[in-house]
Amino acid sequence: xxxxLQVQRTMRFLDQRDKEPMKLGSLRKVFTSDRASEIxxxxxxxxxxxxxxxxxxxxxxxxxxxxxxxxxxxxxxxxAAAQTCASCGNQxxxxxTVAGIVTQAMQASSVDPGQIKPYNPxxxxxxxxxxxxxxxxxxxxxxxxxxxxxxxxxxxxxxxxDVHFQYPYQFWLPFTSLNNQQLLLTADVQTVGEY
Length: 195
What we know:
Oligomer: single chain
Distance between the termini: 99 Å
Number of strands: 6
Helix content: 40-55%
């Protein structure tokens, strides 16, 4: 019973305190306090910190996607450079087989191979002539004159295989020029042929 009376007195005191006019000293204390400035600083800094973290996340995803498509193109080029495939019944590699290897590597990393777009770089072919074939927007060119390794002191020029395609990447970074901006990430891998 005593506890109930104490709660009722406290409630009456709070009601009475709310009805009293604010004293000048307590009003001065509100305006001179630095609590308001902390809130204003946080309101300015937190959105900026959030944008930086969001930018780190989206650029990290772009880099991961770029590394994934280049890894897939490298696997495809390695398979295309071999004359036969043990898992294919020792048959020569075809564009369809190489595209399947690229597609599987992309799917293993949860990158949608259905979004692949064609890419046509300027290629030089060896004296014997080269051919390019496309499967699912993935281009495989054989007998390609690889980039000049002789000028870099790495030996004579070589012929090989080139696998290339592009992959779209969509940024979402609000309040910036990159918001809803689509970039085309390029995968162009060359490997020495095993002829």
